[in-house]
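Students often ask why we bother predicting the structure of a whole assembly rather than each chain alone. The short answer is interfaces. A chain on its own may look different once its partners are present, and contacts between molecules only exist in the joint model. In this exercise we take two input lines together and write out one structure for the complete complex. Read the inputs first and try to guess which parts will touch.
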Amino acid sequence: MFKRLDEAASIVAIEVDGKTVRARSGDTVAAAMLAGGIDHCRTTPVSGAPRAPYCLMGVCFECLVTIDGVGSRQGCLVPVRDGMRVETQQGKREVGR
Amino acid sequence: MTEASNFASSYDLVVIGGGPAGLAAAALASRAGASTVLFDENPDIGGQIYRGITSTPIKSHAVLGEDYWAGAALAAEAKASGALIVTGATVWSLDPSRLVGVSVAGKARMIQAQRVIIATGSLERPFPLPGWTLPGVMTAGAAQTALKAHGLVPDGRVLLAGCGPLLWLLAAQLLRAGTKIEAILDTTPRSNWLRALPHLPDFLLSSYWSKGLALLREVKAKVPVIPIQRLSAHGEGKLQHVEYRSSGKDYRRRVDMLLLHQGVVPNVNLASAAGVAHRWNERQLCLEPVLDVDFGSSVPGIAVAGDGAGIAGGAAAAERGRIAAIAAVHALRPSASVPDPQSVRQRLQREELGRGFLDTLYRPADAFRLPEGETIVCRCEEVTAKQIHDMTAMGCEGPNQMKAFLRCGMGPCQGRLCGLTVTELIAAGRHARPADVGYYRLRPPVKPITLAELASLPISEAERKAVER
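Now the answer. The structure tokens for the assembled complex follow.
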């Protein structure tokens, strides 16, 4: 859905659902996912519909993902870190994460 | 990175939000000798207007425009002022005694503030239309954030839809960044022009006039602008096409990205939860806090500055932050030297000139604020317009009852996105005024926090004994 204007930035690698995604240092998780061609961050608890970031400013909670085992993190507020493990969130947050 | 354990247990001034209002307020108060901490939940200061101002990968000043780069001086001033500036900090609680609950990197702290300035800014007005939850549909502000903070531009066939100054600014910025925009679907009702005319003289005196005209020219030279009266988004699992009505005819168009915008409204969640009185602004169709001339709220010691006090834009936000900070310093340290408040007020007045015209011209049409049928209103709980209509017809009187009936506004966003739509839909159904219908009753925590964060709060000996027995 998005492309980068500038590819010449320092690159970190994160893992999204087991797949390596290259991100720019300074990206948030949501930005890295949008640039990485991942078309949704989560599915809804009610109908299972896919959702992608809508506001990118911490308001809409459509970018909820599991980050390093912790569920329901707002991907648009968390900066990427090399080796970070991200999982798209299926439905509601599960007990234990 | 500042850790929660580094915070003092109390500060003269706690500023919440690192946009223009918060940065200006923190800089002024700290310079005047008040111990000041500023919290912002984003990874960087700047708020949304100056998003990424100290870290943006966009190096060409022309892309984002000189108004954006004006934020660099503000950020530098705040950083040099001695105020403690903490990013990645989520304020999840504020009570009338000015006890601030904040989390940083998974650790929470309670901080006592002598004065608080809430500078949480604005958010985009909900734009509920069929298919607006599909991946590929996002707000214009989101695309602007992606550009400013991350150097990302929308890819493929891009459509913009809506009304308001920000939509035109984003269009210009995307064009300068080399993005092709297929079209702008303009939702501005034609009748608004007539209503806006009486406000034209003030607008002609404001800085918006020449800037706005230049923007319109720049964009219209490259992008077709289509006036529309209806819009819906469609696709399987993601956006594939839109349908719209223009001058009585229906059109269908393949598209990869749809960017929606119909103005911004104050982000009232934190101030509401702190007990600050709010009122309905009929011209801007939103809630705003009731404030005095120093932006002091109904709760002693708590001020609301910036766009959170009512929409007026970034330059006005900074002046409002300064006025609120001068009042705070006066109360805390009457002998401290501060700038002349009268000159700040005059600058603010100049900045606010012209809003009447913009607010009236870009007042969004009912068709794009009051959805019908199966259109989702509450994105979190997937509550539809029809469900809200039906419940209102059954006698459900306000947004808080709607929560109980439909879980509307009960998802993780806590009603941030659907609040205004729900209030207006119930008002329409009851033939009442939005002011009488009211808004969601908000309460802490205003942002979700984990039990682990709560458990990280320092415990006093007395508190430990109280549970050990």
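Check your guess against this: Residues 45 and 91 of chain A are 4 Å apart (CA to CA).
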